[in-house]
Please model this.
Amino acid sequence: MDIIVLEPGTSDVNIRHIIKKLESKGLKTHVSQGTERTIIGVIGDTSKVTEEEEDAIRAMTGVENVVRILKPYKLASRDFKKENSEIKVRNITIGGKKIHVMAGPCAVENKTILFGIAEKVKNAGATILRGGAFKPRTSPYSFQGLGEEGLKYLADARDKFGLAIVTELMDTKEMDVIMKYTDIIQIGARNMQNFKLLLEVGSIDKPVLLKRGLSATIKEWLMSAEYIMSRGNQNVMLCERGIRTFETATRNTLDLSAVPLLKQMTHLPIVVDPSHGVGKRDLVAPMARAAIAAGADALMIEVHTNPEEALSDGEQSLKPDAFTRLMSELKPIAQAIGREI
Ligand code: PEP
Ligand code: MN
Model:
């Protein structure tokens, strides 16, 4: 017993009564008020609920059906919520008709460079500024990010250019400082299965961008989203950023088939990051176009005004003029599939 589908028009009193009954069995609930139906998701170890207990719930006023979900993820599943989830960030909505683009440098390097990039991506039509202040670098000798100073520059850029901001949280220790500045919290590929971190961001109210782990299956990825959602935070978006395969000609293999597949499996918005997906500047635009055609709700693209001098990921960063060109190329593709950008 995992989902309780209610009859249309079930009163709040009856809903509360059903919830109380479930809670008396040590289970938690999450009510999803859809346009057509209200559904109660049952959270916790539902395997211990006996068939008799399940029948008793089925007999309660307002209950239309009790469904057992065989999938290990529940709150993230399409079975649980038919409508696409829309995530509100400042004055924008991710997961609706409009496709949003998050753009900016891999790392925040200094205020002048960040502002230069922010102005260019804003003028090209991006609505969200990206930039790492705490960087998960492969080498301990590489630039690790500016920390709080970088977060301050991001917040200043938000105020000046009217862009929402997204930045990575690497460690629970940095939660407070990240919360103070960011609009969206990014969980990086290397932390997709850092379950403590997932539970932490599950108990806050800011949207989370959950990147796919380097070698994670789609199921593992959805289970990580479930970790966050099980704590209460339903504002999760999934970001495909390429996976490890035997192929070494590209940095990763961008799994675009994950996009339409995830659309069937989950109601959560899907973001595609072609920059880390391919690792090569020339391949970013074609894969960004393909991602929109495949149904992505948003893109994350690395842009730098001077990629040759970038402190990280310069080889995959677009220059502003190439980014501007890409943004205009994306328009007719979005239109062709009934969306806008
Ligand atoms: C990034 O967005 O700069 C980043 C480090 O991404 P990922 O976690 O996907 O490697
Ligand atoms: Mn990067």
Summary: The radius of gyration is 21 Å.
